[in-house]
Design brief:
With 937 residues, the chain is an alpha+beta fold. It is built from 18 helices and 27 strands. Helix 2 packs antiparallel against helix 11. The longest helix is centred in the first third of the chain and has 113 residues. The protein is flat.
Length: 937
């Protein structure tokens, strides 16, 4: 009330009464708005909407009937889905087992060839007429091969049509003749596949110790895909081998008696003009001649195409009295390998019978002709991931018969673009350097240039638009088998992989064995039975739906009655609640208003400046705790006023003192770095000594910061001058520390060499010196075998300049050197791809050493990557070695001064306003032709 008393003092007693009444009115108004009005509104709404609610319940029941019907249909679908999932798992298990079984059959076939080779080699030891023996042996070793049916192309239907239709097949019995066998009785009819016995070996030869074919039984070259004739030759000459692609004799010379050599699949690649079914309409649309015979065989998609002819070469030494006298080789016909998978068809049903009597019949696992048109087929990969068996034979990896080089695998448009940007000339060499099985995703698109050329063999290592390659490779990594589902060509496919467990020769040390058998199948083929079950289930559940609908309508009637009774009860309860609320509110309002006024009064006094004003309310209810909190707040504010005055007094002094300390600290750091720069510069080689060694020279050394990680070192040891240019980890102070470690290590190496070899003695090989520098840095930083807290090192170039005018030697670790002739011809010599230092397992570096002829007027250029990695202001790409070489060619002449001037002018224009990324070191020199005769240091 003191707050309202303050109003009396200022405005009069009437104003105080109005103040008190105002609080009471507000409290009543709040209670009316919060309780009375919502309660009345709720009762009114329930009363007004009772009939609507009753009607809505009826409508909801009707909707529920409809939803129940829909849910029944959904339940049927879910049941079918669950059944389909179980069928898919069963199919997955069965196809994994089939893949495993096929892989085992292929391995058994290959191991039989081991036995044939050992048997024939033993028989030839005591044979006086080897030619007759190997002829008889080759003719006796046969195995059945499928005879592909003849097809013609029907231009009216744009389809391939068999020339001779197979005889009508009587459908298998659908019911068991014996009633006790009738439970899930099933009978299938395998399709007729005409087969003929064919020799397993295309060639058997005996070689002498120089690789000459001294005895030959062969039909290689008798048909169109081979370039090897039946005449004898020398296999050390690749031109005398099958498809000009065999280079195996050097490996034979390393065989011990009884050991076996086994080659990869060798054969001439067969290109294609069309992927998929070869038709006249598609040929016309592509504006090319309809010539299916000029493309690779693709089974039912192109039955007139050219077959892939391949061999697998086996060889073993021939011995007499324990000595190797020659070698026996056997060329296995690759068609026998393809026979295991070419005719596998993982489908569930197919149409059989005549045109007028067509029935659905389970199909055999084997088809009479290869067919990849529906995406259901089997194929094989070799141990590297190259395709060696496929219904579309243009996918089989092979060799260019004109050059004997393997045709590179099909890649994505992204991979082809990366090759073009690399600046490399040979695609096969560039592709072999790329990491295999990386970034494979179906979101990438195939390279259209390879499609246009018709040369699209599959090499899973680089087939980066086919992610299943990585899956097969993972399954095959432990020599096992497995499968997975993948969305491919618009459908979900089950694909399996099983290792071919053959471990002879080059395959002995790999768990991947000879290669992989894979099967791809459309999983939709296995869910047809579930669809029929869904229809039957819907009929049964419809009857249940009618019964439940009647029950729901009774629920609607009962709900309407209960709702009306609830409405009447709610009105009575609401009236009683309203009377009670008004009475309680009237009593509580007076009490609460009085205590609130007391709080407001003390707050007004405190805000007016009376810091001693306190409520002193000790009651335990909410208003009492508010008053106690106010008193605590007042005490805290009063105490804080005194502390704040002291803080404000001392704050300016503390700020000024800290500012001075920071200024002095920054000055000390700056002075220390400047001093370190003077120390680092003082360690650079003496300019006079450098000129005596390098001849005419120009040197640019520009740290990115005051000190840097680039450095160069010079020393005369014996009859050679040594120059080392290094780019250490990082730049600034960390890089400078690394240059000190590297320089110290070089000084220790040079001292040790001079102490051990003496004066005027040839020093060790550059590769050995680089190895010593690498080992020394790793030892100082404890970076051998793990456990080190650092992982630092450097890139470096080391050159040795003999005093007698001999060729300059160069050895690089991630750093190159350029030579420039007087006619501005630039040559780049590449260093090794390994840096020095860093965490390692102690494996020797084996860096290459180059001999650089010391021609008249020849200049040399060495630079760290501070130039080549700099980002340009305009194009936002790095400067690069290609641009550097072009800049050197465009210099006024090949003098070191003009070369450095041209490089730095072009480099600064390229950099523009872009921030410098790294330290820059550029050394160009043109040495004298002959050593001047000075004494070694």
């Amino acid at each position: 009330m003191k707050y309202c008393d303050g109003v009396i003092n200022r405005y009069g007693r009437d104003a105080s009464i109005r103040c008190f009444l105002s609080l009471i009115k507000k409290l009543f108004a709040f209670l009316v708005l919060a309780i009375f009005l919502p309660l009345v509104a709720a009762i009114s709404l329930i009363s007004a909407d009772s009939k609507i609610i009753s009607s809505d319940v009826t409508t909801a029941i009707q909707d529920l009937e409809t939803q129940f019907t829909e849910n029944i249909a959904m339940a049927a679908e879910n049941l079918v889905g669950t059944s389909s999932e179980e069928m898919d798992k069963l199919a997955q298990y069965n196809w994994e087992r089939l893949s495993f079984h096929l892989a085992g059959q292929v391995a058994d076939f290959l191991y039989d060839r081991d036995n044939d080779l050992r048997f024939l080699a033993g028989a030839l030891t005591a044979q006086d007429d080897p030619k007759t023996l190997i002829d008889i042996f080759r003719q006796s070793k046969t195995r059945p091969l499928t005879i592909a049916p003849q097809y013609r192309f029907d231009h009216d239907s744009q389809q391939w049509v068999a020339l001779a239709r197979p005889a009508a097949i009587t459908p298998a019995a659908r019911a068991a003749q014996n009633r006790e066998n009738s439970n899930n009785f099933s009978s299938s009819i395998p399709p007729f596949r005409p087969r003929d016995m064919a020799p397993i070996y295309r060639e058997i030869t005996i070689l002498d110790l120089e690789g000459n074919e001294i005895v030959t039984s062969s039909d290689l070259g008798a048909t169109g895909g081979s370039t090897k004739g039946p005449t004898k030759g020398n296999v050390t000459n690749r031109l005398d081998t099958f498809a000009k692609a065999e280079v195996y004799f050097d490996q034979l010379t390393n065989l011990k008696p009884g050991e076996i050599y086994v080659s990869d699949v060798i054969g001439a690649y067969q290109p294609t003009h069309m992927i998929g079914t070869y038709t006249a309409d598609r040929a016309a649309k592509a504006e090319m001649e309809f010539a299916p015979g000029e493309s690779a065989d693709a089974g039912l998609e192109n039955p007139q195409g050219r077959r892939f002819e391949g061999i697998i070469r086996y060889a073993t030494p021939l011995t007499r009295n324990g000595r190797i006298t020659g070698y026996l080789t056997m060329a296995v016909d690759h068609r026998h390998i393809m026979e295991f998978t070419d005719y596998i068809v993982p489908e569930n049903t197919a149409q059989t019978g005549t045109d007028d009597n067509t029935v659905m019949q389970r199909q055999s696992l084997l088809a009479p002709i290869k067919d990849a048109s529906h995406g259901n087929y089997a194929f094989m990969w070799d141990h590297e991931g190259r395709n060696i068996a496929h219904p579309r034979e243009y996918f089989i990896s092979g060799f260019d018969p004109a050059t004997g080089e393997r045709v590179p695998g099909w890649v994505s448009a992204d991979q082809a673009a990366a090759f073009r940007l690399s600046g490399e000339d040979d695609f096969s060499t560039w592709l072999a350097a790329q990491p295999p099985f990386t970034g494979q995703t179906r979101t990438k698109t195939p390279n259209p240039a390879q499609i246009k050329s018709g040369r699209i063999p599959l090499d899973c290592r680089y087939l980066d638009f086919a992610p299943q390659c990585a899956g097969w490779h993972q399954i095959n990594s432990n020599g096992g088998y497995g499968s997975f589902l993948i969305y491919w060509s618009g459908i979900w496919k089950l694909t399996t992989a099983a290792t071919i467990p053959y471990y002879t020769g080059q395959y002995a040390d790999s768990r991947r064995g000879f290669g992989v058998v894979t099967i791809g199948a459309n999983i939709g083929e296995f869910t047809r039975a579930g669809m029929a079950a869904r229809d039957t289930l819907n009929t049964s559940l419809g009857q249940v739906n009618a019964s439940i609908s009647a029950s729901l309508r009774k629920v609607a009637t009962d709900t309407s009655t209960v709702l009306m009774k609830f409405q009447n009860q709610l009105i009575i309860v609401g009236a009683l609640m309203l009377i009670g609320v008004v009475a309680i509110t009237a009593f509580a309002s007076v009490n609460i208003s009085r205590r609130v006024n007391a709080l407001l009064t003390k707050a007004a006094e405190f805000s007016a400046g009376d810091l001693t004003a306190r409520v002193n309310d000790r009651r335990k209810d909410e208003l009492g705790r508010i008053g106690q909190s106010f008193d605590v707040m007042a005490d805290t504010i009063a105490s804080s006023q005194d502390e704040l005055a002291d803080i404000n007094t001392n704050l300016e002094k503390m700020v000024a003192q800290r500012t001075e300390e920071l200024r002095e600290s920054n000055q000390q750091i700056s002075d220390s770095i400047d001093y370190a720069s003077r120390i680092q510069r003082s360690l650079l080689p003496d300019a006079t000594a450098l000129k005596a060694s390098l001849g005419e020279s120009a040197i640019i050394w520009q740290p990115k910061d005051v000190v840097g990680g680039d450095f160069y070192w010079h020393k005369t040891i014996g009859d050679r001058d040594y120059l080392v240019v290094m780019d250490c980890t990082g730049h600034g102070v960390p890089g400078a520390f690394m240059t000190l470690i590297a320089t110290s290590t070089l000084e220790q190496i040079s001292a040790a060499v001079m102490a051990s070899l003496g004066r005027w003695v040839i020093t060790p090989d550059l590769s050995d010196l680089m190895q010593q520098l690498h080992d020394g840095i790793c030892a100082q930083l404890h970076q051998v075998g793990g456990g080190s807290e650092s992982n630092d090192g450097l890139d470096a170039t080391m050159i040795a300049i003999p005093h007698d005018g001999s060729p300059i030697e160069y050895c690089g670790a991630q750093m190159d050197i350029f030579t420039v002739t007087t006619d501005q011809t630039v040559t780049r010599y590449r260093g090794g791809k390994t840096s020095l230092g860093y965490l390692n397992d102690g494996v020797p570096l084996n860096l290459p050493v180059h001999q650089l002829p010391l021609e008249d007027g020849l200049s040399f250029v060495i630079t760290t990557d501070g130039i080549t990695t700099q980002i340009g202001e305009d194009k936002r790409v790095s400067y690069g070695y290609k641009r550097l070489a072009t800049c050197i060619e465009d210099a006024e002449d090949n003098s070191p001064k003009m070369i450095n001037r041209a490089i730095m002018r072009n480099f600064r224009n390229w950099q523009g306003s872009e921030e410098r990324r790294d330290d820059v070191t550029l050394i160009s020199f043109r040495p004298q032709r002959q050593f001047s005769g000075r004494s070694p240091e």
